[in-house]
Amino acid sequence: MTKNKISKLFKIxxxxxxxxxxxxxxxxxxxxxxxxxGLGIIGSGSMYPDILxxxxxxxxxxxxxxxxxxxxxxxxxxxxxxxxxxxxxxPIVFTSAGNPSTWTKQLKQKKIKVxxxxxxxxxxxKAESCGVDAIVAEGFEAGGHNGRxxxxxxxxxxxxxxxxxxxxxxxxxxxDGKSMLAxxxxxxxxxxxxxxxxxxxxxxxxxxxxxMVLKAKEGDTSLTLKEITPVRMMKNKFxxxxxxxxxxxxxxxxxxxxxxxxxxxxxxxxxxLESGELEIGQASSQINKVFTAKEIIHQIISEFNGIKSQMxxxxxxxx
Length: 319
Hints:
Layout: H1 5-10, E1 16-18, H2 27-35, E2 40-43, H3 49-62, E3 67-72, H4 78-87, E4 92-96, H5 104-109, E5 113-118, H6 121-129, E6 134-138, E7 144-145, H7 153-163, E8 168-171, H8 177-185, E9 190-193, H9 195-198, H10 207-214, E10 221-224, E11 231-234, H11 237-246, H12 252-259, H13 263-269, H14 293-311
Parallel strand pairs: 1-9, 2-3, 3-4, 4-5, 5-6, 6-8, 8-9
Antiparallel strand pairs: 7-11, 10-11
């Protein structure tokens, strides 16, 4: 039996979780990751209730392995999403962007494992007090919506490890076996990767967006719109327009007006690389080819085990 806390908790082979990214994480990606030994997650934040139900059913038909649904707690149809998760017997739910006390107890009463995403020790303690089964601690490097604290993963993980007793999943800037091993040396029990699975064959991201990710270089992303909800995105035409707007000392209302509706869908799902919001993490600069989910997980585990086996004999670790 596995000794790893996350593998044991979720009944998976590898403690690798694919993040529930909006517009990228449908049933195809989630089932492919689960079938490859990790934990696939359906990202419900970009789905209407009927679309989520359809994705859950297709995922159940495509894998007999555990999978999860990510539910942003500020989602307007949250009650319908929770009902779908319960009715269709989804085994694991990852909650984010809201108060974990709202739904954790009800979900756990239905024998559903609950994980909450946090960006600080304060919210990690809050989540633990609400009874979650595990916590995702996501550093400043991560793509998409992020914490206001701007704490990097390397600082956040040890702080959270020292503060909570529940299993901890590290996220933010984790892209391969090396970074996975680093996170676990810092005390994490597993890792969550979003950016790594955007440019994946099973991802529902538009091919234009995938190709732009492959071309990303160091410094091509930035965290902005902190007055609304901090989000890390690629520096495209829309981002530059936001930069220009900030020079006018805009109100929150003007920022909201500039963002508008459907901006992420426009860029990530429909492929408008100029006017769309392209959410991606700093580690995108390390991705240069599109692989299948199976290939990605094999590469990560192979590198992880290879480096781990070398560490005990490497001269640079002898003092």
